[in-house]
Structure prediction request, 270 residues.
Amino acid sequence: MKKTNNISEFLLENNIKPSYQRLKIFEYLYVHKTHPTVDEIYKALKGEIPTLSKTTVYNTLKLFVDKGVVIIINIEDNETRYDADTSLHGHFKCEKCGNIYDFNVHDNGLTIDLKKFKIKETHIYIKGICEKCIN
Amino acid sequence: MKKTNNISEFLLENNIKPSYQRLKIFEYLYVHKTHPTVDEIYKALKGEIPTLSKTTVYNTLKLFVDKGVVIIINIEDNETRYDADTSLHGHFKCEKCGNIYDFNVHDNGLTIDLKKFKIKETHIYIKGICEKCIN
DNA sequence: GTATCTGCAAAACATTTGCAATTCT
DNA sequence: AGAATTGCAAATGTTTTGCAGATAC
Prediction:
């Protein structure tokens, strides 16, 4: 399978051994750009991989995050979501349908393609090392 | 006490009956701009209010968020933090010391007073109603 | 005296950990 | 065989819920 091979190579390039579970979990994230939760990934793959456990989904996602091929999205406090797109972009969550949309973030600030969306809350989180801790 | 009266009035203006616990919890958030967790608030006030329960802290914070006088900060996935400053501003978390710093977000985009800080991750979350759900 | 508010105890979830079984090479 | 991976079961930690007692008006 061409796509599977590509994903396999991509994982290898990032020092991740492409086991069957890892391939399937990454593929799911790569194909379904819905920023799924652990439970959503688990339920979606359970049919295809009947022996799959949630622990493996947790382990695998943590590995992906550590290796930098997946990022965590904390747009809500009661759910951790995952995204295989690690490039800088914003996330818009509709409070009605629950969908999470990606939007572009430009260098010169935040120019949003959300003109038709009704914005209620904006959260900007940056992580790194502060002035005192750099030394 | 002047400050307490101010907080009391502020809560009343926002349709929150200023009980002793509510006053103290809001005062804590207002004075300590460290974006504390439920547990931090609970432990900090337990001495002053020996009968305080964590349930009350949870209940009260939920009430504050519902009434719009406090916002939730989800900068990490394993901790929910709270902020009595509901104006638009960004949060920077130092991965070393754990401190969370506020920074300004200007109208024309994201101009950050973080020039001396080392940025590792940027997360921009917007919530509202999407195009499809507005109608 | 009725509403509301508080707080204990239990339940519900999400996530992590220990360890044994399985798989891969 | 030896090392890594998987997955069950139990533990942990956080947040929610039900309900009874306390408090306020």
